[in-house]
Amino acid sequence: MPRRVLTKREAEIASLIALGLTSKQIGDRLGTSKFTVQRQAQDIYLKLGVDSWNELAIKLNNPNSDAPAQIIGELRQKVEDLAAERNGYRSENRELRERLRRYEASH
Q1: Which of 8, 32, 55, 97 could bridge 36 with an S-S bond, Cβ 3.0-4.6 Å?
Q2: What is the pLDDT along the chain (107 residues), one digit of tens a residue?
Q3: Burial 51-61 (b: 16+ CB within 10 A, else e)
Q4: How far apart are CA 75 and CA 64, in angstroms?
Q5: Whole-model pTM?
Q6: Domains plus CATH for the chain?
C-alpha cells in the first residue's frame, strides 16, 4: 500500500493521539467536535496502515516505528508545547499565590 503524506491537521491530530488525548480533548483543543476528530482519525488510519486509535498511539510511541518523520516532528513539538504550557501555568500559579500572600499580609 503506498503511503500518503498526512495533512498538517492530520499530523497534529495523530501527535495528540500519541500523547494519549481523547477525541473530546483533541476536539476541545482544536476547536472542533470529537466526531470530526474521529473522522479525521479514520483517514489517518488508512494512510498509516493501522486499524485503531490504540494501534496508532502504540505505533507513534514506538522508537523503532516506521511512522513518517512528519508525525514524529509534530509529536515532539506538541510535547514541547505542552511542557511550556505546564511551566507557564506553574509560574502563573506561583505569582498568584505570592499576590494572595501579600494581600492577606496587608489586610
Answers
A1: 32
A2: 445 678 889 988 988 898 888 999 999 999 999 999 999 999 999 988 899 998 888 887 776 767 666 666 777 777 777 777 777 777 777 888 888 888 888 87
A3: eeeeebbebbe
A4: 15
A5: 0.63
A6: 8-106 (1.10.10.10)
